[in-house]
Amino acid sequence: MSVFAVEIFLVLLGVGLLCLEALLPSVTRRAIAALSLGGTALALVLFAFADTSAAALPAFVQPFHQLDSLALFYKGFALVATLAVLWLTVENRGYLERHCPEGRHGEMFSLPPLVCAGMMWMASAKDLMTVFVCLELVTVSFYVLVAFARKSSLVLEAGVKYLILGALSTGVLVYGIAWTYGVTDSMSFDGISAALADPETPRRGALLGAAFLLAGLGFKVAAAPFHIWVPDVYQGAPLPVTTFLSVGSKAAGFVVLSRVVAAFTAAESLIRTEITTLLLIAGAATILLGSLPALFQTSVKRLLAYSSISHAGYLLLALAAAPTARHDLSSAGVTAFYLGTYLPMTVLGFLVLSVLRQNGVGDDLRDLAGLGRRQPFLALAATLGFASLAGLPLTAGFMGKLLVFLGLVDHAAWAALTCAVIGAAAGFYYYLRPVLAMYSGSPATAEPIKLSTATRAVLFALVAAIIVIGVYPRSLQAPLKSAGTTAVHASH
Amino acid sequence: MITLNHYLIVSGLLFSLGLAGVVARRNILIIYMCLEMMLSAANLTLVAFTRFHVTDGLPDFTAQSLVFFTITVAAAEVAVGLAIIVALYRTKRSVETESVTQLQG
């Protein structure tokens, strides 16, 4: 069974669930949730045992599909992220029932598998056309997901803002694709990097195309100066969707960015220095514009939104830095590694907020007061999550940041490194504020919060992932290794 | 004689007009129209480039097919987008940008 079959299975699952919800109103929400979760988990199992050789793909997709270790890593990432989001949707059912028309929110379970298929496909893209179609499959599904709980005016507002800025980024992206194609006469990444190595290719046109292309992708990954939509949309959207945006949409943007940047900055490329400088400036600015406003946030949800912006900055810096001899990962490999560490800690943060909301606790810093006494396990898990987001040693977040910093040192990008260090220092302050709130102050009610066994198990798994990656980073590095070596060889 | 540059200038103008509209207008429906104009400008650029990139006497059809994908995707985007804007109108009785300023911090 090929990886392609798993993707087809996910599409069929999503469409099937949509039809089920629309045609058979008697099907309970519980059944749809179970089918969606079960189906995605089955897809993950199938993916783990799938034949990952390119020869196993059907002949008609082979010219458009690559299965290097980077693609496989992002495919696994998409499946795990989707499963986590579906679980969060189950956790948030109370909120969704209140805010969806007639309490029906089946689409919240049928759209994520479609998004997942889009993300998996995108990871294998070899040309800009596949990238565009997959990116739009993901983005249009997200328009619906963000605005779905439309009885809440905040959700609608977030939906409209996301829609306008998402559509704007699509326009900019297509214009960039058109110019890149016009200058290089090619849609495929291989063709583009070959054309850019040719000194007869018009340099200014190539730069124009690259600038529009990167700007369009910058919207998707929330890079400065295209990050302004993030705080509002993250705050307004339902929690599971915010998580999906923060993890899934970001990973989707970065896998495409990795491919595009690799094509633009190949060894002989005419525009290599410009693109690298652009990425360094954008990354440093993103870190500062994400971290500094985060210092003044009182809503934890909004705090996580700004945190998500500053993490996008680190990811951009990881892409900009040249591969180093210190480890066997390429720049794209370091980016993927960072995203791998980012997934468990972000999901953990949002899962804690979901549990609190189900128990009637708000997401303001003051509402967290005394949580350490009301629910010690939840508070401990949240503490670990925030410590990892800040980058405390022996947690996953530390390893990610360390690799980015090492890359910048070897690249001698001192200005960008300074901004990254300032951002990390600010991070220690704003991530430890909620922790302080949890363990100091007295709770409004002393009533303990109950955790279901399943929630406990998921919390435990996320905490375990954070610690295992932090203590033994090889576990996450190993699947990325060959991506690293092939890319390094290609660039020499 | 109309050359590639003429097409590129027209499509560039169309794109800038769309972008200016998105930035300057206050009505969400008009902003959405301007966004569609930007997509059309990108399509025009693509078609112009493919038409002038002739191999064996034929335009480059692989790149031209992206235009059809863009048109289809734009249609899907409009369907979803208008649904969201209608939902907004039903709740707020307005589609001006001033009606979406609740989220701040």
- In terms of DSSP E residues, the strand content of chain B is under 5%
What is the CATH topology assignment of chain B? Answer: Helix Hairpins
Q: Which spans of chain B have pLDDT < 50 for at least 5 consecutive residues?
A: none
Shape of chain B: elongated
Helix content of chain A: over 70%
Kindly describe this structure.
The complex is a heterodimer of chains A (492) and B (105). In chain A, α3 (69-91) packs parallel to α14, α16 (376-390) packs parallel to α19 and α17 (396-411) packs antiparallel against α18 (414-439). Chain A has helices at 3-23, 29-48, 69-91, 93-99, 107-123, 128-147, 153-184, 189-196, 203-221, 229-236, 239-264, 272-294, 300-320, 331-358, 371-374, 376-390, 396-411, 414-439, 453-471, 474-477, 481-491. By secondary structure, chain A is mainly α. Helices cover 74% and strands 4% of the residues of chain B. Chain B is built from 3 helices and 2 strands. A two-stranded antiparallel ribbon of chain B has the order 1-2. In chain B, β1 and β2 (58-59) form a beta hairpin. Chain B is elongated. Chain B starts with a helix and ends in a 13-residue tail after the last helix. The interface between A and B is large, with 42 and 43 residues.
Write the topology of this structure.
The complex is a heterodimer of chains A (492) and B (105).
Chain A: H1 3-23, H2 29-48, H3 69-91, H4 93-99, H5 107-123, H6 128-147, H7 153-184, H8 189-196, H9 203-221, H10 229-236, H11 239-264, H12 272-294, H13 300-320, H14 331-358, H15 371-374, H16 376-390, H17 396-411, H18 414-439, H19 453-471, H20 474-477, H21 481-491
Helix pairs in contact in A: 1-2, 1-5, 2-3, 3-5, 3-11, 3-14, 5-6, 5-11, 6-7, 6-11, 7-8, 7-9, 7-10, 8-11, 9-11, 10-11, 10-13, 11-13, 11-14, 12-13, 12-18, 13-14, 13-17, 13-18, 14-16, 14-17, 14-19, 16-18, 16-19, 17-18, 17-19
Chain B: H1 4-24, H2 28-52, E1 54-55, E2 58-59, H3 61-92
